[in-house]
Structures are given as C-alpha cells and as structure tokens.
C-alpha cells in the first residue's frame, strides 16, 4: 500500500473536491482511498489551520509530509513564510495553483518569480484540473524519504481506552510497526508491547511508513506517552536525546533578523516543538540549551527547523545541522 501525505495549504472547498474530510483539530485531514488497481493507494491531505496566527500546525504538517500543495489567492508575507517553510522542510516536489477568484488579481509571473526566489521548482498551474487528474499528479510526486529503515512514530494524540489501556496516535515516519512488537518511548525510555494497531479505523497486523496509526500499548505508564513522544523499537540505537548542543545554523535567505545570545527559539522535528535558549555563538555555530530533551536521529536524517515566535514578518530562521552534544 502506498500512502502519500500532502502538506495542503489551500481552501476547505478545494480539499473536499479531492478527498473525504476525516478529522479536524489544529489540522484538517482529508483521505482518498484508491482501490482501482492491485495495490491500494492512499492520498492524505493535511491542511494546517490558524496560519498565519499560529505557525505550529503548519510545521506539524510539514514534519510528516513529502509532497506540497499551495493554493495562491494573494501574494503577501504569509505566502512567503509558507514557501520558506516548505523549502526548509525539504519538500522539493509540489504543485501551486493560482486562484483568480479572490478579491484581487494575482500576477502569475510574480508567483513564478517568488517560487524561484524560494528555490522551489514546483509545477505552477492557473486552472484547477479535473479531480482525478489532480490526484494522479499528487500521487506521481511521491518520493520515499531517506532513513526509512528504522521505526519512528511521532505521537500527536494520546488517550486511555477502558479495557485496553494507553493509546497513541501518530504517523509512521519511517520503518514499520507490528502487533506484539516490543517498543520504547522517547524521551523517557519507558518500554512496552504493542497490543493492537488501527489504520483508518481498521484493525491491522502492521502499519508502514506514511500510515496514520493508532497504537494500543501494554505495560506503558500512563504519564510516559504524550504529544511529541516518539515510539521506536526496543533496543534500537536510532535516536538520541540532546539537552545542550552546538549546531551549524543554515539561515534562510529571506531572514533579515540576527539571533543573539539569550534569545529564545523553538525547534520543530517529528511533531516535537521544543523550547531552547541560545547560550553561545561563534560565526555560523550556535549553542542551544533545551528546556526538555530534543530527540533526533543519530544518523542525522530529518530536518530540524528553528523558529522564533516573536520575529516578524518571518518566524523561520532556518535549519540546524552537525549536532554536537555538549
């Protein structure tokens, strides 16, 4: 089964033309299931709400998507931030659709120029295609992410079910998870066993990369699993918890503001949104103390986006790499 998660920055009406609305919290999700061929295909549109007032839902969507879509209704600072967010997250494949039904006319040449500035080589269309063609285009843009060989399930919802126990819901970022697997929750290191799995309300034996999965766990402490927790296989050496680190800051080309010692920043990766304070700077290198541990892969796979919530008009500073625990 192929699952394509699309970071969908557009209208509710357009999303409903392509897929069935499935869930709505800080993120609207829409699902289209194609069973016309021998292999089932799932198109999952993830539409962040509250942007530009809040940037976190947008970053959460980008954490789990590998294809992008933007409906352009006007050219403003919010559009610029979305383009920078898409580029920073490594979403190189996508479609932009210019909607001329908005209050003001949008210049297609200006849109193309802005995408070139953002270094996004996406398809830009001026008329909405027929829904079937649109879905096929999004399916065709899907590419497997690097680092799909080890289990990582970032959790965005958690609750207790009577008679079952702790249940976590999230997207399989990489690898696969099966019933009866022995797992570990990070940060914290609490261990447990997978009691059961659900994908799209169906009980399954296994969930794979891209699936939105509900994981019922046995032997897990109620307080060990929460939003931003990661489920990995027990004994896996894939992840590490970082309290203080020195990084190379790769600043986005549109960011004019300069960070300083004692500035408060946030890091977004794998549905984590961690608060940190800059305690050292040396050229491109910055040292950040994290309020709670930042969990990253030891092999460096995955993009850590740095934002500063009070920065205007661009809250995204860029990405960090070359992690060196202090």
Protein architecture, described:
The chain folds into three domains: 2-140, 3-Layer(aba) Sandwich (Rossmann fold), CATH 3.40.50; 153-233, Elongation Factor Tu (Ef-tu), domain 3, CATH 2.40.30.10; 239-325, Translation factors (Elongation Factor Tu (Ef-tu), domain 3, Beta Barrel). The chain is 15% helix and 46% strand. The chain has helices at 12-18, 56-64, 77-88, 108-117, 131-140; strands spanning 2-9, 20-24, 27-34, 41-48, 67-72, 94-98, 123-125, 153-161, 165-171, 176-178, 182-186, 190-199, 202-204, 206-208, 212-218, 230-233, 239-251, 264-269, 272-282, 285-297, 304-307, 316-325. The termini are far apart. The model has no long low-confidence stretch (mean pLDDT 91).
Short description:
The protein is mainly β and 326 residues long. 15% of the residues lie in helices and 46% in strands.
Number of discrete domains: 3
Would you give the CATH topology of the largest domain? Rossmann fold
- What is the CATH-assigned architecture of the largest domain? 3-Layer(aba) Sandwich
**CATH top level label of the largest domain:** Alpha Beta
Helix tally equals 5
Q: What is the H-and-E element order?
A: EHEEEHEHEHEHEEEEEEEEEEEEEEE
Approximately what portion of the residues adopt beta-strand conformation? Answer: over 45%
CATH homology superfamily of the largest domain = P-loop containing nucleotide triphosphate hydrolases
Q: Which residues sit in consecutive blocks of at least 5 with pLDDT less than 50?
A: none
Strand adjacency order, main sheet: 2-3-4-1-5-6-7
Radius of gyration: 20 Å
The secondary structure category is mainly beta
The overall strand count is 22
Q: Percent range for helical residues?
A: 10-25%
Overall shape: globular
Compute the average pLDDT. 91
Q: What is the distance, rounded to the nearest whole angstrom, between the alpha carbons of the first and last residues?
A: 42 Å
| Major β-sheet annotation | 7 strands, mixed
């Amino acid at each position: 089964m192929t699952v394509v998660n699309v970071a969908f920055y557009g209208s509710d009406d357009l999303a409903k033309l392509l897929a069935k609305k499935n869930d709505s919290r800080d993120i609207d999700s829409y699902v289209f299931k194609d069973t016309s061929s021998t292999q089932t295909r799932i198109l999952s549109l993830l539409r962040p709400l509250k942007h530009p007032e809040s940037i976190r839902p947008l970053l959460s969507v980008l954490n789990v998507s590998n294809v992008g879509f933007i409906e352009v209704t006007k050219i403003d600072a919010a559009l610029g931030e979305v383009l920078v967010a898409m580029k920073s997250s490594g979403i190189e494949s996508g479609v932009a659709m210019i909607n001329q039904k908005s209050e003001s006319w949008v210049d297609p040449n200006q849109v193309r120029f802005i995408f070139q500035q953002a270094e996004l080589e996406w398809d830009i269309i001026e008329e909405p295609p027929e829904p079937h063609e649109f879905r096929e285009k999004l399916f065709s843009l899907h590419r497997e992410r690097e680092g799909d060989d080890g289990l990582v399930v970032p959790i965005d919802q958690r609750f207790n079910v009577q008679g079952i126990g702790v249940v976590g819901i999230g997207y399989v970022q990489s690898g696969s998870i099966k019933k009866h697997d022995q797992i570990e929750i990070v940060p914290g290191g609490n261990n447990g066993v997978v009691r059961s799995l659900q994908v799209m309300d169906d009980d399954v034996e296994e969930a794979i990369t891209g699936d939105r999965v509900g994981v019922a766990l046995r032997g897990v402490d109620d307080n060990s699993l929460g939003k931003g927790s990661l489920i990995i296989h027990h004994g896996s050496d894939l992840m590490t918890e970082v309290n203080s680190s020195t990084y190379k800051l790769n600043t986005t080309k549109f960011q004019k503001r300069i960070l300083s010692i004692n500035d408060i920043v946030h890091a977004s990766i794998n549905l984590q949104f961690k608060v940190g304070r800059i305690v050292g700077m040396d050229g491109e290198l910055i040292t950040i103390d994290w309020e709670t541990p930042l969990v990253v892969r030891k092999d460096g796979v995955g993009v850590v986006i740095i934002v500063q919530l009070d920065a205007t008009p661009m809250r995204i500073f860029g990405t960090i790499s070359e992690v060196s625990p202090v």
